[in-house]
Backbone:
């Protein structure tokens, strides 16, 4: 079944997944209202850009009072951002919302790093807030939790590894780095958002979204080297050395989010099946085959 004929509101439209999602929604014949905190892009056919924080009435999104508002929404911004905009959704007669969370709510809840534990708690609490609000307002909700997202050189996972290699010529590994990963391409996540939105036979459920291939962390790094057409150069270091490296790297703004917990997870399996998503809305992610664009320049 299709989403409401008045179109779809997208929060986080200027993000990596947001950009991919906009074109999919437009290609599906839906009118798209793209919301961003930054400067809105120039509107084009099928996509109307708006700035978050401004006041919008139902009449601005419809041609008749009978079909006023935007009833279907997708939030690809961090899930905790959405609650700031509940009044906007309510004012426009929201009836269905698809929201991105993350499997980090599970993998970081016992992290040795306090900020990571806080992130996991924030994700969990935000999911609970969304569900309580949706129930109170008779809104259908779907939560999607991707694993490690990559794509187009704009992610904070694979692209970050590539940037490190490009800058230093090697990549550090803690121990054997045999922890399993299931990288999921951003375009597959955007496709899942579209499919979950349009399939109105499902509602009030959360789904994990993992990639189409499971591989050890060290092999994932090796494929980054290969995509960059560089000889693989990894440096196996003990944890105490990693602690020193991280403390120095965090002096550089780009690496401020690095932590020793990241090294510890290199030997932990962070895997989730996507059987439910495949069954309910046909989620079928690609294998982890990097293209040059995925590792940036």
Residues:
């Amino acid at each position: 079944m299709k989403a409401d004929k008045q179109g779809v509101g997208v929060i986080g439209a200027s993000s990596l997944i947001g950009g991919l999602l906009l074109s999919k929604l437009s290609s599906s014949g839906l009118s798209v209202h793209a919301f961003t905190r930054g400067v809105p892009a120039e509107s084009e056919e099928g996509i109307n850009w708006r700035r978050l924080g401004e006041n919008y009435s139902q009449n601005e999104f419809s041609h008749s009072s009978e079909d006023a508002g935007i009833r279907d929404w997708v939030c690809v911004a961090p899930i905790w951002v959405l609650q700031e905009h509940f009044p906007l959704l309510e004012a426009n007669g929201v009836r269905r919302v698809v929201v991105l969370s993350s499997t980090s709510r599970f993998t970081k809840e016992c992290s040795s790093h306090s900020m990571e534990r806080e992130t996991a708690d924030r994700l969990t609490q935000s999911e609970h807030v969304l569900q309580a609000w949706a129930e109170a307002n008779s809104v259908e909700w779907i939560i999607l939790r991707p694993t490690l997202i990559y794509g187009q050189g704009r992610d904070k996972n694979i692209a970050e590894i590539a940037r490190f290699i490009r800058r230093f010529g090697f990549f550090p590994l803690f121990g054997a780095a045999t922890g399993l990963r299931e990288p999921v391409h951003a375009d597959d996540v955007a496709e899942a958002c579209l499919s979950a939105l349009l399939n109105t036979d499902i509602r009030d459920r959360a789904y994990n979204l993992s990639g189409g291939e499971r591989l050890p962390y060290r092999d994932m790094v090796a494929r980054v080297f290969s995509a960059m057409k560089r000889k693989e150069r990894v440096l196996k270091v003990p944890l105490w050395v990693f602690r020193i490296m991280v403390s120095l790297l965090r002096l550089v703004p780009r690496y401020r989010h690095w932590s020793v917990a990241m090294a510890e997870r290199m030997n932990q399996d962070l895997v989730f099946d996507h059987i439910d998503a495949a069954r309910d809305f046909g989620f079928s992610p690609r294998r982890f085959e990097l293209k040059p664009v995925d590792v940036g320049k």
Observations:
- The two ends are 41 Å apart (CA to CA).
